[in-house]
Amino acid sequence: MSEAKRLAAEKAIEYVEDGMIVGVGTGSTVAYFIDALAKIQHRIKGAVSSSDQSTARLKQHGIEVLELNHTGNLSLYVDGADECDGNKNLIKGGGAALTREKIIAEASERFVCIIDPSKQVKVLGKFPLPVEVIPMACSLVARRIMDMTGGQPTWREGVVTDNGNVILDIHHLEITDPVKLERELNQLPGVVAVGLFARRPADVVIIGGEPPIVI
Ligand code: 5RP
């Protein structure tokens, strides 16, 4: 699958225009995108990063990393996903970077999602849905999630997010109304962000292959 990830990532370079500040997601597919971006870095002003991991890779390549508070809205955000349905709704957060990813997606005019074919699904939920939670609310939120969804939340052991929080992964969901579930989970006190990107889905999805498919 890594070849498919690379092909998707390289196709996404076509969306980068001269002088842009590019929003950059997190993960192994995005790592290929950063490597490709490095080759045209003279054409861009810099990047806004969604994680310490992506920041380190961007800086290794000499790409300037800027603060979203200073850049204002972005024209382009490129990120991967764990699952993608036919309406470009996504599950994200396998890399625990969902909150900053969601912030940058919200700030961006165009969200280009880069995936390998295994990420395509009819109904979201086979991949456990990540939720970032304030540590003291972890048990409370887990109990509420069980009552609300019937899913099984598990604490992602040993993981602390870049924001100092924990991750619950909700297993055994079949997400037929992703916008509703995203809204409901977001309202639980202690939830920082939900890894459902349905209220703000991707605008473009690139599925890696020879040739890549753009939908
Ligand atoms: C990180 C993410 C990633 O985009 C998602 O986990 C996909 O990762 P990969 O490209 O390594 O398959 O949401 O929080």
From TrEMBL:
Pathway: Carbohydrate degradation; pentose phosphate pathway; D-ribose 5-phosphate from D-ribulose 5-phosphate (non-oxidative stage): step 1/1. The active site is at E101. SUPFAM superfamilies: D-ribose-5-phosphate isomerase (RpiA), lid domain (SSF75445), NagB/RpiA/CoA transferase-like (SSF100950). GO terms for molecular function: ribose-5-phosphate isomerase activity. Coiled coil: none annotated. Keywords: Isomerase. Substrate binds at T26, G27, S28, T29, D79, G80, A81, D82, K92, G93, G94, G95, K119. GO terms for biological process: D-ribose metabolic process; pentose-phosphate shunt, non-oxidative branch. It is an enzyme of class 5 (isomerase). One of its GO terms (cellular component) is cytosol. It catalyses: aldehydo-D-ribose 5-phosphate = D-ribulose 5-phosphate. Its EC number is 5.3.1.6. Catalyzes the reversible conversion of ribose-5-phosphate to ribulose 5-phosphate. Homodimer. This is Ribose-5-phosphate isomerase A. The lineage of its organism: Bacteria, Pseudomonadati, Pseudomonadota, Gammaproteobacteria, Lysobacterales. The gene is rpiA.
